[in-house]
Amino acid sequence: MSNSPLATGTITTRRRPIDSVEYVEENGNGKVNIGQHHHHRRITSSVNSLMRPGRYLSRWIFGALMLLMISTMFVKIILIHLFLRVNATMTSHHDFLQLPPHVMHAQNSEIWAKLGSDKFYKCIDRSSIKTRGKSMSNGYILVHANGGLNQMRSGISDMVAVAKLMNASLVLPMLDHKSFWTDPSEFKDIFDWQHFRKSLEDDIEVLESLPPSVANVKPFLKAPVSWSKASYYNRDILKILKRHKVIEFTHTDSRLANNGIPDSIQKLRCHAMYEAIRFTEKIEQLGTKLVNRLKENGEPYIALHLRYEKDMLAFTGCNHNLTQKEAEELRKLRYKTKHWKEKRINGTEKRVLGLCPMTPREAAIFLESMEYPSNTKICIVAGDIFGQNGLKALQERYPNVYYHSNLATEQELKPFMQRHNQLAALDYILALHADVFLYTYDGNMAKAVRGHRLFQGFWKTINPDKQNFVRLMDGMDNKKLSWKEFATQVRGLHVNRTGAPNARVVGHSPKLEENFYANPFPGCICLKPKHEKSR
């Protein structure tokens, strides 16, 4: 009989030494337990079977896919959580980790959209007939430009137009050194005077000083009548000029009407304001640097003209959100300033009428209701904010707040220290080139920047409806409106208040109508012929 195992019907299995080790466990008493090794072996055998291709191939694929899907989702959730936590702490524009600009602000691209229209164009070219001829000048005009930077700029532009109306020579204007800021800067310190003279040579003669022939002539002092028509200058004032040869205007603010002025003179006003009156090279260069720093990585920014400044609050009598001591300080300043005619003012009534500058809190809530995200860069183009709380309410919602003072280095700002009109020129450049300009009080800077941005192509400029905004704000503060109701109504109010083309509104009185330099359409902005025919 054969000794073969097959022949005897029994099969003996050789156990690898490692198998004995794999299935031997030690119990809690330190004794080896081998009684369960057959059960473990069956489980391992089943898993190995599933892991092998063959009859279990479909189960293997399904199991692998499920495992991959679950692990991927788990890793993704962890990464998103970590990313958001880290990015939430990055508030400075120098941070190494930021959401890319197209992600940060693409959530609502409409809030940054430019409103420029291809239906309009700048139309300030004067015809050759209207340019300066060879005729002798009728005399010389000296002017004292009064007010702050932008009031002086608009006044000087009007004086250019007046010189044209009278065929007179204009001596470089003298600037105001007695206003609130008492800035000693002269015309040449702020403006490129050679560019000013060259740009206007086809319209008027600009001189550095009176020529020797009239240097000893005593000028005839005159404060022109406010909001005057062209006939006042080329008839009444021209007679005085021809008689005295030199006339000195003591004021330049609002001395020419907004409307009813010859078309060629309106175009000259815009040419002077937006092209001839250019800042000095050192101001323009630094201003451009600051704009580029704000726009690094292609990120947009808002220029916020937050006129919550001591002089403005004292002048308007507005004291909302201030302490009693601060309000009294403003009242004393108002009574002390002689040329401010209005002394007794009810600040609460003025605020309800929408005649007060927005507070920092109101500006922050306005921006939030207009759906600007909290990581938006905001550049304050104004002076120091008054009050013990300062910008706290704004920075709580919008931490990325900048001034020219923290955008520029100390060395860069050194030439401009104590030269408030030159610093205001830097702010003007920052406001002009912002992606969005929001002004909270319709003063001279707001008018000048708004008009310039319209002239450049209807760049987005938000003109807040403060009377209705204050009403809604008080309603929300008094629990009469939810945030959703409040924000929806605020957005609805401002659908048509973001700088789109709208013809200048003519009023019953020059003081109550829209300012020419705040909206130079019509006059300096025209419809293209093909669109004009289709109207």
TrEMBL record:
Q: Which UniProt keywords apply?
A: Carbohydrate metabolism, Fucose metabolism, Glycoprotein, Glycosyltransferase, Membrane, Signal-anchor, Transferase, Transmembrane, Transmembrane helix
Annotated protein name in UniProt:
O-fucosyltransferase family protein
Bilayer topology term: Single-pass type II membrane protein
Xref: Gene3D superfamilies: 3.40.50.11350
**What coarse category fits the chief subcellular location reported for this protein?**
membrane
Which protein family is it in?
Belongs to the glycosyltransferase GT106 family.
The pathway to which it is assigned is: Glycan metabolism
Name the domain of life this protein comes from: Eukaryota
**Which organism is this entry from?**
Solanum tuberosum (Potato)
What is this organism's lineage?
Answer: Eukaryota, Viridiplantae, Streptophyta, Embryophyta, Tracheophyta
The answer to keyword Protease applying to this record is no
- One record GO biological process: fucose metabolic process
Q: GO molecular function terms here?
A: glycosyltransferase activity
Query: Mind telling me which residue stretches traverse the membrane in this protein?
Result: 60-84
Q: Report the subcellular localization.
A: Membrane
